[in-house]
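JOB MANIFEST
job_type = single_chain_structure
chain_count = 1
residues = 264
[input]
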Amino acid sequence: MTEHSTPRIIDRPIRARQELSELPPADSRAREQCLRERGHTLSPETLVRIAREACMAGDRSVVQQCGRLLYGKPLGNGRFTEGHCEPMITSHGRHFGFSDKEEDRIEFRARCHAALWQAIMAGSEKKPFFEERFYAALKGLVIDVGRSMAAERDRHALNDPALDESSDYEGVAPVDWESDPISGIVTEEIKDAIRRLPAPERDAAWLAWVQDWKIESKDPNEQRTVAAALKITGRMVHKRLSDAVERLREDPIITRIMDDHGWS
């Protein structure tokens, strides 16, 4: 914005304007209670506005409620129910060919959710359309994610060994929270955020930060390292971890947790 420019006026739908005018004040218990009782009746444009205000206020509970109302509820098989996003994500997942395999459904949905949250965190000035015409904005976002994943799939089909670096995330053993040396840093919020990362970053982050595996080893026979498990170089692991940190820092709540514990 230039010195003489005026802020953009958000052209919200009539329904969203009415809902926002009737809400209790931001950062109040009354608003949190209102979300619990009738959040499912609110328009997505209203939920985006509430989520943005809650993020600025550091109100984690309200942020999480808005996320659940927008995303829906997981069914445990790579599918979600309810939520404003699910019909669009499911429809375009079928269109791009990501609906047959559970791992594809999980990956596509996780990327869509991450991209949406990134757009929400960008704020009203940079991403006003999510407060004006949510479904149109979401459609463009989901299409972009689908095209990106389809392009990656096509490159894998060419058998490029530099690109064939997938791994089985579901096969990772659960962490022992009592003995894990970084359990004080990897909170439940960060653990959930790691699960939402794109698969390459998610696998590297989970093994390195949650499982506390070494990045690599000079012993060629040692398999309990991130590089060995993912069949990539240690340098590539560090690159993926760096990318994971950048994505996690897009969420101000996660950023505060990371900064409080000196995890940079």
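[summary]
The chain has two domains: 14-157, 169-260.
Confidence is low (pLDDT under 50) at residues 157-184.
exit_status = 0
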